[in-house]
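[job 0412] stage=fold_complex status=start
inputs:
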Amino acid sequence: MRIPKHIGIIPDGNRRWAVKNGFSKEMGYEKGLKPGIKVFELCSKIGVKELTFYGFTMDNTKRPSIQTKAFTKACIKAVELLSNKDASLLVVGNTDSPMFPKELLPYTNNRKTFGRGGIKVNFLVNYGWQWDVKNLINNQSNSNNVIGLLHSQDISRIDLVIRWGGRKRLSGFLPLQTVYSDFYFIDDYWPDFKEEHFYQAIEWYNKQDITLGG
Amino acid sequence: MRIPKHIGIIPDGNRRWAVKNGFSKEMGYEKGLKPGIKVFELCSKIGVKELTFYGFTMDNTKRPSIQTKAFTKACIKAVELLSNKDASLLVVGNTDSPMFPKELLPYTNNRKTFGRGGIKVNFLVNYGWQWDVKNLINNQSNSNNVIGLLHSQDISRIDLVIRWGGRKRLSGFLPLQTVYSDFYFIDDYWPDFKEEHFYQAIEWYNKQDITLGG
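[job 0412] stage=fold_complex status=done
writing structure:
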């Protein structure tokens, strides 16, 4: 079986899950923590080498502050939970903004090893696609590797993007690392994560003809 | 009904169609011409303002020359057919390469009006996502509009991408104009185009909640 080297996760539908279950919207984010750790564990188990989570974006920070506080708190908590595992974490996002949580600054410049290390985990926090790509402007490089010039240069090409919550779009998720990615969409909301979702995505990916645009 | 302003078309599956129908692979491209004109007419009819077709990419030119000749010929023929319609055409791609057909050079620098003009048609010919984005490097601009600095700067944000041929990926299609696009995937091969495909995509798009990443 061909296991994707690098999986991107778009964990959408937290707010819709909350409303559907009788909570206020911002209550949905905390319900995304357990699925996140579960996906991490499944990826470690099957031998995925790199895993990127869409935390929150600069676009998202325009939402009501009760929501921005709730998703920021959930991101900090996610890193706490991960710190008890074996992983190598990098947080990527615009740190020159009050919306970036200072608790996560220690993870932004260098990849931090938790436990025995292992799978690379990238966590997008206050990420913006324009912010990311603007690092190319005024760059003096002659490199042919465009990705190596981005703010997100330590995040490699993504093989498989899995998005929960029924929407079929990238919403600004790493536009240059996803140019050749295969997309797997799941209707269920992220807090309703089931292991089957993950395994179905992996089985589907195994059947795709990978050409990298060729 | 909310009609997308700008639709992107990924007309995939020509070679698989040819093989399935007992032809050699390169015979499939010509069968994509009629569907292309049909989509153009449907877009004009319902009031789409801009339409972008994925012709061929720099990645594609690594294929056997019998195929590259066939898809290049089909692209030239497509422009001939369009020249009998009311449209405003721009061809976008890397012209500094022998793979770019000289017949299409007149359409690369300025948008050319056919008939009474009208819908903007962008045609990607020998397009490469790295080529496109590299225009940002060494750019002296202070602009906040990243898309305006690309080689493809005259192509605007895309609302809806429709891909035929069953694959769920972008394959390098305008990575920055598609950051917020909704994706509609059709299993049928492009030469098996039916009007229903198009109308189903439009109806599906009408039901999406458009947030532009917010």
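[job 0412] summary: The radius of gyration of chain B is 17 Å.
[job 0412] exit 0
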